[in-house]
Amino acid sequence: MECLKLIASAEFPEKRIGYLGLMLLLDERQEVLMLVTNSLKQDLNHANQYIVGLALCALGNICSAEMARDLAPEVERLLQFRDPNTRKKAALCAIRIIKKVPDLAENFINPAAALLKEKHHGVLITGVQLCTDLCKVSAEALEYCRKKCTGGLVRTLKDVANSPYAPEYDIAGITDPFLHIRLLRLLHVLGQGDADVSDLMNDILAQVATKTETNKNAGNAILYECVETIMSIEDNGGLRVLAINILGRFLSNRDNNIRYVALNMLMKAITVDTQAVQRHRATIVECVKDSDASIRKRALELVYLLVNESNVKPLTKELIEYLERSDQEFKGDLTAKICSIIAKFSPEKIWYIDQMLKVLSEAGNFVKDEVWHALIVVISNASDLHGYTVRALYRAFQTSAEQQETLVRVAVWCIGEYGDLLVKNVGVLDIEDPITVTESDAVDVVEVAIKHHTSDLTTKAMSLIALLKLSSRFPSSSERIQDIIIQNRGSLVLELQQRSIEFNSVIEKHHNIRSALVERMPVLDEATFIGRRAGSTPATVSTSNGPSLNLPNGVTKPPAAPLVDLLDLSSDDAPAPSSSGADFLQDLLGVDLSPASKQPGISGTNQAPRTGTDVLLDLLSIETPPASPITDILSSSQVYKSPHASLEGLSSPSALSTRAATPAGAAPMMDLLDGFVPNSPISEDNGPVYPSIVAFESSSLRIMFNFSKARGNPQTTSIQATFTNLSPNVYTDFIFQAAVPKFLQLHLDPASSNTLPAGGNGSITQNLRVINSQHGKKSLVMRMRIAYKSNDEDILEEGQVSNFPRGL
């Protein structure tokens, strides 16, 4: 209230103190400002220009929307006041008003345009800024300025750029750089999206870009603003090249701030003219090696955007060379970018493998899991490079100054898979140096990895698997390998302890099945792995035996599509992934590293059953051979009704009772794990019986569901689907797809065929397994989609099954 009393005084000193207190103590949200509106209005109309100036300063600082509407006419009138200082303050106050109430912008268009003709630089700067803000909030103002003001602005900028020395405006030898920058920003706004206006300003922009001195900060500021204007107006190739060259000169400047803003601008420019930016590639790469962390990171992001198929090799080479001497805190970002570049632009697999090995050798501890997983997938697919790769990894392991965890993992995996190629020097390339590796040397690598103090659970588990595989590939070293494995029997980590006991049993007692257990991994599907990394693996897709699509690098892809939309759900509500979408690392290594595996009393290898994978071969997660060889291996009895089992099931008689059946008089089941399984015959128990249902029927197709459920596992239901063709035409490329709600998990086995005979003369069968997490609370429900060809015409049928028997 004291401030209001002072403002109401007739004397200038009291008003000055009152307005100062008002601006310092109050803001636009205070209701008391309503009381000062009338005083402001009186002072804006005062005969004393200094009192008018006080009122404009106060209004420009604390103006609210209500005050703006009430006092806008006075401010508009003062834009034409005789005193330049008053006009300048009125323009600044008008900027505040149009920001608070954009609807008032049209009232200030003509007065603002008149200010652009001012000779007084202070008034001219505020007028230019007022026009800039008007153009941003009003399309009408923008159009008016483009038509009426562009020519005048270009002339003004030309006059300022060519003006002789003026002491009152000179800064570092440049006439009024602040006015330069304000004019360039207004031209930026006017030229954006308008080719005609852009043409009018091309010459002056080129003149400013070429004649402005760069040895002072003021000149650099003008050049930066000029570059930003050039990059924003409509296309002019020559000007843009000139602008990018200016940014290239900025990168050579010793001032870190100038280099940083140049890198920022180049990141925008690369989307407009990539070739012009590419000319400064060497300078940008040098910025990656800068001592300033902000410049390093920004330059690295820019280098990543510059990489293409033609320059990936030299750029990757330079980045890897710098990786060797880069700071520890920067290695993580640098490694991630290098790995992404290699994966995205790799021209050939041997180059990809070489570069990844260099990265693993220099910064393996910074490499993310999905990167070395992808490397193993690529190695698996490059069958002609297996020998070269395992030798390169052996060399890298031997020469590595410190243990890089991911390098050790990849090396151990490859030695386990291709150790015989390493010893026999298979597939030697011309670019390789000769090397002699004995069986003992190969085992030494794995032994060092498993005993090293920095090795974690994953590395040690992979090493144990590699040793088991080498015991079959190197029979003469089998005894030494067994001794190394036995040393982990007393490990405090249950995963390692269990594997040690199991693998020792395999080596010691089961020579007849060991070779089948440790066969080489099948070729890993690159397309499937990439889809899993991207989160796009189909949840439940039926794969048929029909012809597959031929893709690059020998990849085959099933023709079925994802079924996310089958239940009309978003991707978050898609059905739970089937066993085919199990964790890739677990499939690859046979190691369960989930938190559950670390709890006492829970077996780390007791993974969920996987479709089509026999328990013996699941021990090492290798592909299931045909059924007949398994029968030969377990010749003592055909114990398994289903290929689904777990290692825990092998060691648990109660678990076996639900899965296995032995005919009367048959020999006892083979003891894999030191006699944990009793030698008495196991009786068969098929569980409860449920009636069959017609799941789907149309004029051309019938689908029957037969159900079975193992006793002791009420949540899991096995379904056999039988498809019958009711039409006189043969159906080809037959594909069955299904989806379920989130509380269900659905697993589909491959169909028996992809051709359905006509007229009911034969059928196709397909096995499904549904796990109901809400068993007893919610019933099963399923939506189906059936696709096939009839007379070369694609047919798609859909349906919903809601008549499942009770109790499922």
Largest sheet: 5 strands, antiparallel
Tally of DSSP helical segments: 35
Shape: elongated
- Structural class estimated from helices and strands: alpha+beta
Poorly predicted regions are 536-684
What would you report as the Rg, rounded to the nearest angstrom?
Answer: 39 Å
Number of distinct beta strands: 12
**Mean pLDDT across all residues, rounded?**
79
Biggest sheet strand order reads 5-6-7-10-9
Helix content class: 40-55%
Strand content: 5-15%
How far is the first residue's CA from the last residue's CA? 79 Å
Subcellular location: Cytoplasmic vesicle, Clathrin-coated vesicle membrane; Golgi apparatus
Family: Belongs to the adaptor complexes large subunit family.
Membrane topology: Peripheral membrane protein
InterPro entries: Adaptor_Complx_Large_Subunit, AP1_complex_gsu, Clathrin/coatomer_adapt-like_N, Clathrin_a/b/g-adaptin_app_Ig, GAE_dom
Q: What's a quick, concise take on this entry?
A:
The protein is an alpha+beta fold.
